[in-house]
Write a structure and sequence with these properties.
Belongs to the two pore domain potassium channel (TC 1.A.1.8) family. GO terms for molecular function: outward rectifier potassium channel activity; potassium ion leak channel activity. The chain contains 10 helices and 6 strands. By secondary structure, the chain is mainly alpha-helical. The strands form 2 sheets. A 3-stranded antiparallel β-sheet has the order 1-2-4, with no helix packed on it. A 3-stranded antiparallel β-sheet has the order 5-3-6, with no helix packed on it. The protein is globular and about 90 Å long.
Amino acid sequence: MKKQNVRTLSLIVCTFTYLLIGAAVFDALESNTENQRKLVLQEIQAIVRRKYNITSEDFRIMETIVQKSEPHRAGQQWKFTGAFYYATTVLTTIGYGHSTPSTVSGKLFTMCYAIIGIPLGLVMFQSIGERVNRLSSVIIRSVKSSLHCRQTTASELDLICVVTFLSSLTIAGGAAAFSRYEGWTYFDSVYYCFITLTTIGFGDMVALQKDNALSQKPEYVMFALIFILFGLAIVAASLNLLVLRFVTMNTEDERRDEAQAMQALAGAVRLEGDVITANGSILSGQLGHHCTETTSLDPDDTSVCSCPCGCLPTNSRHRSVPRFTVRRSPTQIRHLLPVLPMHELHLPQGPVVPPPAIYPNHRASI
């Protein structure tokens, strides 16, 4: 089995095993809390309904009103600032879900916009990641040269350490800012930054969604957008070093196999003409000193061909006869001249046509 197939099967098995482990861990961590919260919410719902004498239908209407009015707490979502924030979440595939189009034209434009925008964003962030890695390598070489190190080149381990430090610094700084503006705990802010920069985008915690921030705090909006774009560029630099190396392994192996096949093909020697054997098979390739020795040719059986056979030895009994490989069955053999006894020839009635001339230099050993 090829190395690429083994690697693919191993990745599939490892991924599904990782999914099973994750499901078991999340079940153990979150299922009890989910049941407790559900019981508490049901008790609060019963208390509210008894206190205000609300029917079940009216309570469902109130729930719908509260859910639909939640996005409007941040201000108008579809003015230019909010629309730019939404377009950023689409292009970066974060997809918080805090605001979604409600019209048919808006949904259609979102799909068309994503088809073009997502590949464009991926290429842009990948290019920025490459530039960040190149700048990091230049800085690493300068630092090593100033410290008079023996090895001044930037290794992959050095780049990974630098990118990891930049990613940690970005998440830590962004968490401090969001903790101040949003009133979250620092741990929740770190969680939000990680979910955002990895483009998971659950939507349980979304910045710019309270106190009319989209219209009243332009500096905060600008900071949030810059944080998303710059942070994704740093993450792209990390992916360029770690993930893409594993992704391109199959391509590198395929190219290596192709190069080996071409090298082996270049070393192979073929017959230039077709040589017919006594049993009707045709030997195809190129005659030379490095022929493939699989099927020997008996020098007693001969046939005459019209192809140039000057490289065949004239006295084959006193020289080593080369061996050839039977590569295909007879196809077009009109260039071969028949060698049959005269009594087996059935000549047509009429004027006798003289047979073609046979030259001794065109005898091929069979």
